[in-house]
Amino acid sequence: MRVLFVTFPWKTHLYLTVPMAWALRTAGHDVHVASSPEFTDVITGTGLTAVAAGSGPSLQEKGDLIIQRAARSGMVLPKVDYAREEQLTWENLKAFHTVFAMIMEAANDSMVDDLVAYCRSWKPDLVVWESMSYAGSVAAAAAGVPHARMHLAIDVGTPLRQRFLTVRAQQPPGDREDPVEEWMSKWASKYGFDASEELLTGQFTIDQMPDSIRSESDVRNVSVRYVPHNGPSVIPNWIHEKPPAPRVLATFGVSMWSVAGSQPVPVGQIQEMLDSVADLDIELMLTLSESIQRKLKRVPENTRIVNFVPLHAVISSCSAVMHHGGVPAFCGALAHGVPQLMVSLTAQDAQIRGQRLEEARAGLWIPPQDMTGPRIREDLVRLLEDPSFRSGAERLRQEMAAQPSPNDVVPELEKLAAEYGSR
């Protein structure tokens, strides 16, 4: 079987798909991974075969494009609690879809034509596209190839879309615009296929979230266990040494759009956090780029700062993990049964993940407006001293461990590719 993966040119997005891609490869299937040209070295660094698609904007230029278009339109993603139906008004849903369509266009348009041509020439049996890469679903539909979405976090988009379509049908005929449908129809018209909601969900979805964390929808799901992959890395020797005090990993990722000159947790808040936990009997391991490190005024004696550390190698030695809502840190902590503290919440689904984390008694989350040094200290002490959080995290670890591995899922993907390929 020939399988084409399509990924947004961002390491986190690629790395979350690599274990599934390698499971297919080691099962004897031919696997290629397509993305923007500037990303091919990162793909080949995983040992997989890269396909360059598009000659358009780089990642930074795509980020600029989204920011510029949003600024011109005056639209921003509404700050709402997606779990609260009363906040899902027509105006909020319309604003979400307007900005989302801008993101779809900026992130995907430059790749579509090359991907369609590649699918029509290589003729894959299955296209697997991660959840930002709608160019993959368009190319698969244009070439008549079965396709699956590989979702990397909680799927809040599908319930929001279903709610949008319901509320839209209740609006006056002159107020029923759907920018997402317009984007899909643009490509469907060009390549001669019927646009459908499958372009957003895949004909089926590969979902790596545990059942108790994921959202409910009527999309056909294939459950797969999260397997950590953090890219090429060297494990420092000190990681294997017993820490002198409970080890706490703090990792706040990087900005999704570095061109914006910001990061999920501002330097001032990082400094406040360091000052607030300076007297705790812990070993705080903080990952920060050198440029951010230089902006810190004080580093406590109980803190070790590193540029990078492979999460899968260090989390198992930790008593707690503090992070900004990134999926690798979130799922890495789940996989090792380590309590976690979510702050900042940059990802679209992070608020829901934070709430479900607390419901499972596997961690705590701090809404952005409440994120202060004293609050972080208070919640971190709770995680370290209350054994119920370790018990809750262990329950989620067991639930995740019971999910089928990527290798176990390969036969199901083979059957689904044959099923949808025969239609």
From TrEMBL:
Domain (Erythromycin biosynthesis protein CIII-like N-terminal): residue spans on this chain: 22-253
Species classification: Bacteria, Bacillati, Actinomycetota, Actinomycetes, Kitasatosporales
Regions that span the bilayer: none
Domain named Erythromycin biosynthesis protein CIII-like C-terminal: residues: 272-416
Pfam families: EryCIII-like_C, EryCIII-like_N
GO BP term, pick one: antibiotic biosynthetic process
Source species, domain of life: Bacteria
Protein name: JenG5
Keywords: Antibiotic biosynthesis, Glycosyltransferase, Transferase
Organism the protein comes from: Streptomyces hygroscopicus
A GO molecular-function annotation: hexosyltransferase activity
Entry's family note: Belongs to the glycosyltransferase 28 family.
